[in-house]
Amino acid sequence: MIRHTMNIVKEMFEDQVIVGAEVGVSSGHNAQNILQVMSNVKMLYLIDPYFGGMVWENYDQTYVDKERKEGAKTRLKPYEERIRWIYKEFDKCTIKDFEPLDFIYIDGDHGYEIVKKDLVLASTLVKKGGVIGGHDAGCLSIERAVNEFCELKKLKRQTGNNGFHMIDGNRKAQGWDWWFING
Fold first, then answer.
1. Which residues have CB under 8 Å from 107's CB, separation 6+?
2. Backbone CA torsion sign across 105, 111, 62, 80
3. Going residue by residue through the chain (183 aa), what tens digit of pLDDT does each one get?
4. Is the dihedral of CA 90, 75, 126, 152 positive or negative?
5. H or E element: which one contains 126?
6. What range defines the domain where residue 99 resides?
7. Tell me, what CATH number does 120's domain have?
8. d(C-alpha 68, C-alpha 70), whole Å
9. Three-state secondary-structure class, residue 78
10. Structural domains in the chain (count)
11. Do 41 and 73 touch, CB atoms closer than 8 A?
């Protein structure tokens, strides 16, 4: 299932050839969905440092970054002509790491200060009129950072529910997305 922000991107750009990025690739499910559903994405930059020993707990399962990285690489192998990996923290990226972006999807570190930095950097990388969005609207640190950024830049912030999915026969919320048009 494609996330709400990506549906907005899909509608906005229809059949135009576009370039995007995902910050916080994790196990690659969202990137896979983007590449499956949006054949007009000619390049998707995948930014995740995969720190190695970091442990993530999700739905009563524990993953180590190395497992997530290997899973993502395997999952995204069929799309290797349309992806470029960037194994570093997003705030260490520069404009030289990317082609001009039509969209960016942020689902990395959720800390307030990090999200603030992510938004500033994303606004320099995404073309005017492109989409900056991400996951976990409702997380207080993300809400605060996105709201402050949009207020400062006089941008209209949007949100949308990503629906639900099943894990081990249990319905789990997919969460809320946030997005705005880069001005």
1. 22, 23, 24, 26, 30, 134, 135, 136
2. positive
3. 789 899 999 999 998 999 999 999 999 999 999 999 999 999 999 999 987 554 545 544 455 677 889 999 999 999 999 999 999 999 999 999 999 999 999 999 889 999 999 999 999 999 999 999 999 888 899 999 999 999 999 999 998 877 655 555 665 556 789 999 999
4. negative
5. strand 126-135
6. 4-181
7. 3.40.50.150
8. 6
9. helix
10. 1
11. no
Q: Which two tokens stand for residue 141?
A: 């640190």
Q: Between 4-13 and 29-37, two packed helices, what is the crossing angle to 10 degrees?
A: 30
Tokens encoding 74: 């395997």
Tokens of 25: 């690739």
Rounded to the nearest 5 percent, the helix, strand and coil shares of the chain are 40, 30, 30
CA distance linking residue 106 with residue 177, whole number of Å = 10
Residue 183 structure tokens: 């001005």
**Which two tokens mark 45?**
């930059």
CA 107 to chain centre: 5
36 exposed, middle or buried (CB, 10 Å; 0-12, 13-18, 19+)?
exposed
Separation CA 121–CA 130 (nearest Å)? 14
List C-alpha distances in Å: 84 to 34, 39, 99, 144, 177: 14, 16, 11, 31, 24
